[in-house]
Design a protein that fits this description.
By secondary structure, the chain is an alpha/beta fold. The protein is built from ten helices and 13 strands. One of its GO terms (cellular component) is cytoplasm.
Length: 356
């Protein structure tokens, strides 16, 4: 398998040339699990670890490799181990606010051409969550595709209603309906996946991601578990890893994400809510909050039943959340820089006194 079959493209050519000058080889990160890495090149897949220099220079965990990244490595022990020296620029990425109270980016995966957003037609169907996933995809310059699974559990009429709900909030992404029981739609998903291109599955636990991958693999390699009687998903996938499918497409499997906090995703929000963004440009006031201001084009569209109140509420909520976290991140980084300057000056002054 050559590097182009692993997803290497012309966009990365300048970075690859720089690696050669540093006596480093290009490899792709295929798995990350609790700080352990697997990387793959033309010869195969081997374990890898980060160099101390890379760890030292990283300003945050977002600067460290994630699944799908292209990295510069140096092989050792006869090519059975590798050291990761650098992370190449990312053409596209999936990221979110780190889980918990930390205000920092968490990189999920990189160099993805399209994201399949998987949502069950049964218990999991949730427009607001779909809009969050769409923001993540657009924020990282990734084409979104919506997969509606478990269509065998509902009638064709109900399925049409669910698709209508998605379209009414301005979602223009392709929608593919899939049943892992009957196999309907699986071949359509496979046909969307081009050899040498990278795809990922996004969605809650229990929506059928692992079963779908087994259909795409054709050999049932991955473990699956039944969904609980409440409809709540159970984790099957426990780490993010890149899989090469038989027809040459690359697929990143990952655990379901319970937290989808947004940070610095303003561009992704505007792209995902393009209908509201377009209307907002017609408002009388440029800083319109779409509340009670006169001349608000968004409110007028709601009154004409062209936009739903819930759609606007979610737009305002996601924008406020992203801006709040971005402000918190900026404040924290400013404090870190100020503290770093204080330490530098203290050491410099202390060194001068010691010489005296």
């Amino acid at each position: 398998m050559n590097l182009s079959e692993l997803g290497m493209d012309a966009w990365l050519a300048p970075s690859i040339s720089e690696l050669s000058a540093q006596d480093l080889s290009a490899a792709r990160v295929t798995a990350v699990d609790r700080g352990r890495y697997l990387v793959r090149n033309e010869a195969g897949e081997v374990p890898a670890e980060l160099t101390g220099k890379l760890l030292h220079l990283a300003e945050s965990s977002a600067d460290l490799p994630c699944v799908g990244d292209w990295v510069g490595v140096r092989y050792r022990d006869g090519g059975t181990q590798a050291s990761i020296h650098t992370v190449l620029p990312r053409r596209s990425f999936l990221r979110r606010k780190a889980a918990g109270r930390d205000v920092e980016f968490q990189m999920i995966a990189a160099h993805i051409d399209a994201a399949f957003i998987v949502m069950s037609c049964h218990f999991d169907f949730n427009i607001a969550r779909l809009e969050r996933y769409l923001v993540m995809a657009h924020d990282g310059h990734i084409e979104p595709v919506v997969l509606l699974t478990k269509t065998d559990l509902i009638s064709p009429e109900v399925l049409e209603q669910l698709i209508g709900q998605i379209r009414r909030v301005g979602v223009e992404a392709r929608i593919v309906c899939v049943s892992n029981v009957t196999g309907s739609g699986v071949e359509q998903v496979r046909e969307l996946m081009t050899p040498g291109k990278t795809y990922c599955l996004l969605g809650s636990s229990g929506v059928g991601k692992t079963t779908l991958i087994n259909h795409l693999l054709g050999d049932g390699d991955l473990e699956t578990r039944e969904v609980s009687h409440t409809g709540e998903g159970r984790h099957t996938t426990t780490r993010r890893h890149l899989i090469v499918l038989a027809h040459g497409a690359l697929l990143i499997d990952m655990p379901g994400m319970r937290e989808l906090g947004l940070l610095g995703a303003g561009e992704g929000i505007e792209d995902s809510f393009a209908d509201i963004a377009a209307l907002a440009r017609q408002c009388r006031f440029p800083d319109c909050t779409h509340g009670s201001e006169p001349g608000c084009a968004v409110r007028a569209a709601i009154e004409r039943n062209e936009v739903s109140e819930a759609h606007l509420r979610n737009y305002l909520k996601l924008r406020k959340e992203s801006e709040f976290h971005e402000l918190s991140l900026t404040e924290r980084r400013n404090k870190d820089r100020a503290f770093g300057r204080f330490l530098h000056n203290y050491k410099k002054q202390k060194g001068g006194r010691d010489r005296d």
